[in-house]
Every structure is written in C-alpha cells, then in structure tokens.
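Recap quiz, item 2
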Amino acid sequence: MIAFWVVALLAIAGALVVVLHRNPVYSALGLVLTLFQVAVIFALLEAPLLALLQVIVYAGAIVVLFLFVIMLLALEPEKRLAAPFPVAVAGLVLAGLLGFALAAASTVPLAGAGQGALPAGFGSPESLAASLFGAHLLPFELTSVLLLVAVVGAVVLARRRS
Amino acid sequence: MEVFFSLAKVVVAFVIILQLTLILLWVERKGSALIQDRVGANRANLFGGLLPFNLGIVNTWMADPLKLFHKEDIVPADADRFLHWLAPFVGIVPLFLTFAVIPFGDVLKVGGFTIDLVAAPIPASVLFVLAMASLAVYGVVIGGWASNSRWAFLGGVRGTAQMISYELALGLAIVSVVLTYGSLDLQAIARAQGALMWGVVPAWGVFYQPVALVLLFIAGMAESKRAPFDLPEAESELVAGFFTEYSGSKQSVFMMADFVEVAIVAALVTTLFFGGWQVPWLGREGFHFPGGLDIALPSLVVTLLQIGSFLLKLFIFCWVQILVRWSLPRMRYDHLMAFGWKRLLPIGLVNLVVTAVFVLAFEGWTVR
Amino acid sequence: MEPYAALLASFALCAVVAAILVCASWILGPRNPTATKLEVFETGNPSSGSLRGIRFPVKFYLVAIFFVVFDVEVVFLYPWAVVLRQLGWAGLVEMAVFVAILGAGLAYVWKAGALEWD
C-alpha cells in the first residue's frame, strides 16, 4: 500500500511536468516517468507481463516517437500566455467537473472487484494469451489492420510531392 | 537470513557487471594493440616508474577511472544543465539493472536454504531485458539534445534511429527462442538447456536456433553502437557523436555504457543459446557422461563450476565482439538502415514462422 | 513480492553508483571555465549558433513510426510464443494472419521506397 502511494504520487508528479513544463522535451520525459509508474502499478496488481509490455511499447517506442516529432518540428519552449478571463473560468469549471466525475466514479465499485483471491495464474503469459487468442481473437486481428493503416498513412503523408 | 541472501545476490550481480566493464576496457585496449601490432596501455606504475614492469590491468581497473574522475566537468554554455546531467544517468541505470535478471548459476545450497542464483527472479525476465534495452535509448537522445551542439544532435538522432531499428530484429530473434523453450523466464530457459538431445548433445539453443543466434548477435552489436555499427559516435565524421560535449566522469559513463551493452549481448547469447551456466553433462549431483560414467560432486563444487562456466562463456562472447569491432570497417548509414529493415527483419519473421511450424509438427523437437 | 523487492534493491544500488560516477568529476575535478572552453566543439571553427530552430529529415520520423507499429506486432508475439503448444495449429493460423497483414505493410513500405536513404 505504501508502494502504491509512492508510485501514484510519482505518476502524478510526472503528469504535472507533462502539462506544466514549458519545454516540450521535459514534457516528453515527464510522460516517460508517468508511464513507467503506471507500469509499476501494473506490477503491483500482479500483472507483470502487462507492466513490461507497457514499458516496451509506451516508454520504449511511443515516447521516442514523440521526442522525434518535437525535435523534427524544432519546437521552442512555449511562451506563457495570460489566459483571457472567460477562458480561465471555462478551464476552471471543466477541471472542476472532471474532478467531480473522477471522485464520483471512484465511489462506484468496479465490476468484479472485491471477489477475493485472484484466479490461479492471473496475469501470467498463459492466461493473457488464452484470452487474447480465444475470446478476443477478432479485436486482435483487427489490430493488425489498424497498424497497417498507420504505416500506410505515415508513408503517404511523408511522400515528397513531385 | 533470506533477506541477507537476496541482498548478497543483488550485490554479486552488480559487482560482476561493474568489474567486467573495467576488465573489458583493459582487454579491449590490449586486444586492439595486439591486432594493430602496438604495445597498448602500459602506463600504470607506482611513484613515477618505481616498478620495472607496468601494472597491467591496473591501467584500466584503477588508473583510467581515477584519471577521468579528476578531469574538469565541462558543460557547454548553451546546454541544458539538468538534461546534460540526466543523460548519462538514464543511459546507464537500465543497463546495469539488466544484470539483476540474468541467471549466473543454478541453485546454491547453504545450511538448509536453496537459493536461486538470479539476483531478482521476476517472472518474464526476457521481457525485462528488452524493456531495459528500450529505455537505454533515452541516454543517447537526451545526451544529443541537451548538449545543444550540432554534432551531438546528429549523433543522438542517428543513434536513436539505429537502436530502434535493430531492436525489432533483436525482439524477433528472442521470440524464436521463447517459442523453442516455451518460457519467458531466463532461468527456466537456462535450465531447459541442461537436457540432452539423443542422450548425448546438450540441448543448447545454438543447435535449435542458429539463425536467431546470428540475428541476435548482429542486432545486439548494433544496439551497443560499436564498430561496425558505430555511426552514432563515428569519430571521423561526428567528432564523438552524442557525447561530443561530455568530459570527465560523465563521458566515462557513456563509454562504460557501451561496455555494459557488450556484456549484456554476451550474457543474452550465453543464456539463450549456449546453456547459460550449464556445464555439459553436469547435473545437480555431479557429472553424468553419456558413456554411463558418473562422477558425484558436492553441491558447492557443482555451483562453483556453473558460475565459472557462465563467466567463461560471458567473457568469450565479449571477446568475440571486441574482435569484430577491431576487424570490420564502419558501415554506411543507408546500408545500416537497409540492412536492419530489409534483411534482418524479414529473416527474423521467416525464422519465426519456420520455428513455429517445427514446434507444432514435431512434438518432441524440443525439451520443455 | 520478494523478487520485486530484490529488483528495487538492485535499482537503488545501480542508481546510487551511477549517480556517484556521473557526479565524480564535478566533485573531484578542477573548475575553471573559460568562454572558449564552454563553447560547443565544432572542430575548431566558431560555433554556428544554437541548435534550437534547426530541423532534421522526415525520414527519422518515419523510422520511428514504423518502429512503433512493428514493435506492437512483436509485443503480441511474446505471449503467443509461450502458449503456442497449447493453442496448436489454430494458434499458428491466427498469428499467421496477423503477421501476414503486417508483412503486407512492410512490403508496401519497402515498395514505396520509404526505407531508402538518399
């Protein structure tokens, strides 16, 4: 439980860096910190496989892509803008609503939560694969189509107009 | 007591890797001198040349680090000071940490305890190694960016693109081995390799997955950014690549990271393809030779033999990488990227499919 | 939780040693910066200015995208590789379809010349 609080606070700190830091490179690194802490939370929840895949895919691949984009566009540190009054009010109201929604959601018990002991082998590669290649086969196969679209899209966008 | 053994294992694994990098530095300096017909590192002595001989390995084991630690720490005026400091740190910590999951022996039996000789026996340790390898990219990309120098930036971007390109081939090679032994746990894979094929040949990965071995070795060397894949730090074009603007101990940490990567590649090759800590025909009770000859050995001797075997194999594969480094010229960047994407990646996919067919078609093809 | 505690201990040890190594020069080394010394090294020429604002080829970005896509593919392979024996031939066919679709993606990228560096 102590571990959870430490990890959760670090994750929130990382998220704050993402949002508040003016330099986009720092924001990307803050995102790495947050994603890494989420991986640790997965590990704490007896899902070590998911934790490691989280690090490999998000921290190891996706944020590298973000960094490349930041560098590709040579993004400058953001200028701090004074928000006009209505914008500031709208932002506060939305943040309040979001906070309220989260607080409300956290009081509703999750389906299947608190059912006592986890089934044997929970979170193991075997159980993950069993549900991935059994019950969720169609979404899995469709994922490949989604990835294909991403590849083709990237090539088309980057093509030099001749 | 349990806690004491756990901590002892953690320290042992860390000392192995730390000492290995210093020894490798010496082997590399002397080895390259041998290849190039030079004398090599020969300056370590006491009190300005008191001894009639030089102190050999002390050159890199103590003199080199001490010298580098006493150099000035220079940070360019325009650099981002925090990231400049962070880059070598995040570059090396994941690499050090990798060794916590590499098994360096079977079990040690002391006073009623049976200790698994892995510092951190986490599940899915194969994936842990890959996750840490994928985090090592940040040292390169941040180092290149934080220095605010064009050479460093080019080196960093090149290095990142190279590392992520070869990570795919690395992953595919490892998947083939996982498929062969049906486990994501390095210790389980090492143990499975203790079985015998036809009662004679050890069931090492090299006999099942020769293609994956070549893939992993090449991709691993490309990950470690050393010649012939040293484009991120190509001296003759980019000064020193992503660590151009580093000096003193920060620079030595980057150099050290290269050697740790060499050691990781060697450890993966050893564990996945050459039986890890296995000694051929050595079981927990002693040798069982195929001819029917048995030699019983005390458990402690067996354990020491296994650890020795692991370190010997580790060292041999480090040496092979050093030989390759000093024998082959640097690749051109377009060739490098084409080789990764157009050769290694398709070969890895085909190897995977062939392996899968073998696994299903011949039930007894591998021992589990 | 024992393996994770050991991992945490490993991490602490690695991080402390790495921090000492990184900071050693700052603590032990001399400190006399001069303007010339603090300039970035451009083989002896005066520095051509800050990095901020320069750009690099879109190729690198494409490589990163391809990497993300194929990395996700490889990630699906790990749990599959562990249980292929239980899944049997059906498992092989399922993955063959998945890999074939992405193989088509690789073929397209190859054909479109996005892997060429000119």
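Chain C has a mean pLDDT of 81.
The radius of gyration of chain C is 25 Å.
End of item.
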